[in-house]
Write a structure and sequence with these properties.
By secondary structure, the chain is mainly β. Helices cover 4% and strands 52% of the residues. This is Prostaglandin F2 receptor negative regulator.
Length: 679
Amino acid sequence: SLFSYLAFCRGRVVRVPKGPLIRVTGTEVVIPCSVSDYDGPSEQNFDWEFSRETDFVRIVSTWDPTFTSEEYQKRVGLGDIKLRRSSNDAVELVIRNIQPTDQGRYKCSTPSTDATVQGNYDAEVQVKVISDGLSVSGSKARSSTSLRLSEGDSFKLRCSAVTTSPEHTHLHVTWQIKSGSTWRDILSLTHEGKFQPGPGYEERYRNGDIRLDTGANDTYRLSVSQASSVDAGAYRCLVSEWVRGADSSWQKIQEKSVEIGSVAVQRTALDVIISTSNMSVTERDSLDLTCNITTDRSGIFQAEVTWYFSASPDDTLSDAQVLLSMDRDSVVSDSTLISLSHVDRNSYRLLVRDMDVEDSGYYFCQAAVWVPLHNGSWQKVVERTSTPVSVVVAALEPDYEVFLNASKTPKFSDDPTELNCRITNAQDTKANIRFAVSWYYRQRLRSDDVVTEELLATMDADWTLLLGDRSRERTQNGEIIFSKKAADTFSLRIQWTSESDRGDYFCVISAWSRHRNNSWVKSKDVTSASVGIFWATQDYTLTVEAVKLKPFFVAGHTFEMTCKVSSKNIKTPRYSVLITAEKPLADQSNPNGTTRIISLNQDSVVRLEDWTDQTRVDGVVLEKVQENEFRYRMYQTQISDAGLYRCVVTAWSPGGGGMWREAVNGLSNPIQIAFQTSG
């Protein structure tokens, strides 16, 4: 074949499209021509000629300005026919407003720049010019349509396109929208019978919201469901006519458009208002708010309402807490303390029962309008949020009084002290109120100096005891006891009151309120009047009187004396007794002069002290006659027992923890043992 021969020789090849090229009267025709496999400079020149029958007439050349024949000089001079170089080895012959007289053969030639002549240096293509049979129009009722729609509405636009071309042509119909200065494709029915959505319209096409249907009388109907603001603009129908070329490729031979009309999409107006301004409610009461929605929407639509709570007015919607919502089917999300009811078509009531202090904050509602789609689904067309309403929940303070009294008061050191802090006249103290106590001590000063109180102990809401520095060690040792005697009574007991405990005491009863999350928050403090713990301190006095029971005796007889004790300002005293003897200075057994003989302690335990006479181990006896009287006996007295005898008495008072505390000492008058000698 020729192409095989050319390929084998590898000579110059000039190419034009395979004909015939079918074109429509009045359109612009572009015929490309290219050259390959040539020698010489890279930029090649081209000559174009035309023949209706046999002879060719020169049209235009890229290199010779005198090439154009007289027949074409005017059209070339006006630019109706021109060459447009697309590369060094290719040009396009452009014929504007082609006419039936332009039908014929067009030849593209390339002057040789080759070292040897090989290949083909020209190529021809047949151009067939047919009459314009394409007609594109809008609605027959009126030339242009103007639609005003609401968001979510549907609309349809129609155009008519028909061709009477003698050739077998196909139509390509595209609906376009113009927003601004640019036309954008919406949806096309191609010349190959395929639907092709424009950029950005793919999903709406898949969902069926945008359709293109053919109808009778060669009509092409664009259907748009669920219109939004992006659908506002001018609409046109763009129709191109296509024919299949000799090489089986599709060629567009002409294109026409008609503006069908304009569409304005009005955004759905929606106002969302809470009917109440900022408000205050009391704890445990109910909060009643109504969300009113107003819309200019007509037809079928449903509203969705959601109530939100936010601790701060600056919180975003994502930070806010959803309280309750009602969807477009009037299904309310579940809640125990909160209810949402649809009062009427435009009003939605929020009721929050058993308000808590922690519910103070900002409440607002959000509403959305939904409209139905043709496929049975629903689409949200508008959503608005109300201005938040500030709600302050005032704590419901329980009403009660506090009375402090002393059930035990000390008269002496180490006496017990017991204080009872009692809650009286309590009102509004239901199960979610709990009482706790704090105990305070304040020292008494004779001057006008201000003394701050010291915390002894405090209880929190779960009655955990927290000790102050003043009482910590004694409480841990059991010397101070804090207790809850009854539901309304707290007690402070000092087991052994010391002089440093003298002063004023008062208690503070705190009311704790339990919130819905089971946390406890202090709601009120009530302080009692103070109770003074004080007793007069006087010096201890102790008097001991010794009496000799037998005024006269001789050696070998029994010596007997008693000691009577009296005391003042000592609480329940007990006495210990020590018998001492002062011997004459001539007695060398005790150089110090005083001998401790026998003792009896406060628990009546007898002990021999410095009594060393082994022959008379049982020769001395000390016994308690009664609480304040003691008797001393010495059997078989000897001359060496002569001297002055006394009772040394110590008074003891009960101390803390069952111990005894020494109060005061006393010494009796002396009793003399003297023996008569016979002269």
